Amino acid sequence: MTSAIPPNAPDAPAPGPQVRATTLVRHARLWLVPTVLCALVSLLLSLLYMGGILSPGDHLNRLPIALVDEDEGRPLPGQSENLGKQITDAIASTGSSKTTVDWRRLDRAEAQDALDSGKVFGALVVPADFTASVAALTTDRATARPTLTVLTNPGLGSLGSSLASQINQGAAHQASLTIGKQLSASSAVPTTRLLLADPVAVTTRVGHPIGRHSGLGLTAFYYTLLLVLAGFIGGNLVHSGVDTALGYADSEIGPWHTRRPTVPVNRTQTLVLKMLMTAGISLLTTTIVMAATIAILGMDAGHLPMLWLFSYCATVAVGLGVQAINAAFGGIGQLVSMFVFIALALPSSGATVPLEATPAFYRFLGVFEPMHQLSAGVRSILYFDARADAGLARGWIMIAVGVVVALAFGFAMTHYYDRRGLRRLTPQPA
């Protein structure tokens, strides 16, 4: 029925005295709850979002980078090891003592596999002729500068790849200066000593290329964000729409206010209905997200059937979680689910700023917050050939865990409320 009845209608209630806003605004209790909630939400969001991105370099914690020594040259006179072995030993020992970088000593094939599976953010490679090319600098046989190669991995995000590249370039430059001291000490000519002070060139190449329409490795994050938002917004729309249709909530569109007759249904059956509708509507929203991003905007993506299935299951998992939280917490459920799926999930996703470059609190959140696991799965499909060890297996596991937790928590709470006879409201007559 509707309460939008013209004031002059025969059955309209007699209008009573109207309270003015200027009178209500002076009541302190009216201000209390929204003021406190707005202040707390603003404070928490500010700390959460800005706290994880302000200084990624200061919070490095075992950022994985491959260290490859292919040097086959003989040791220089007076030395027991060739320069490749000396450089990699020095870099690995320094990184391990500071715990900022997890230097993984791999051969070239292992390093390429680690790049292709997203296990390392980059690699520093000492070529096979490195010692020989350095030794030639002090003779008339030198034809080129010795070179160290830095490999990047843009599939792990532009910031993570950039951090690894900066670390690799710094390590290569320090190695060059160390070698330069050894070489310049053997020369009496000042010009030669100057040229030999920094003898090693550093070249940077992409170790695992991604598509040109991949947003420099950020499409995985934004696509995952779309899936989470589709599940979050869709779940809340289903929640409010069902409550309105069943007569447990009012509908207001502009000046029109409607209250439908209350349908006698308990909390558990209402949750079943909402979850079924969430799963059904997610079929449409997932298809629309893929069509908009890939067909219309041209985002680079392969393994489309796998991407659609993963996207659908991720959206459903989030939507079911939203329904469970709303069923348990009632009116504040939307705020709680916003923190679970958005506020806490975004800064701990590891898709823009690597978790290895965030404070420990965010690394802790990344263990269980859904967006980190889902973005790893999407990233594997988009950039790493849908390899299970590139994050896809972890993504599927998180989806399964999320669905089980949502079902168990949601139905446990509604069953408890129903058993206690806690009805949502007094049924309204037709």
From TrEMBL:
Classification lineage: Bacteria, Bacillati, Actinomycetota, Actinomycetes, Kitasatosporales
Annotated TM spans: 31-54, 220-238, 275-297, 309-329, 335-353, 396-417
Family: Belongs to the ABC-2 integral membrane protein family.
Keywords: Cell membrane, Membrane, Transmembrane, Transmembrane helix
Localization annotation: Cell membrane
Domain DUF3533: residue ranges: 37-400
Protein name according to UniProt: SNG1 family protein
Keyword Glycoprotein: no
One Pfam family matching this protein: DUF3533
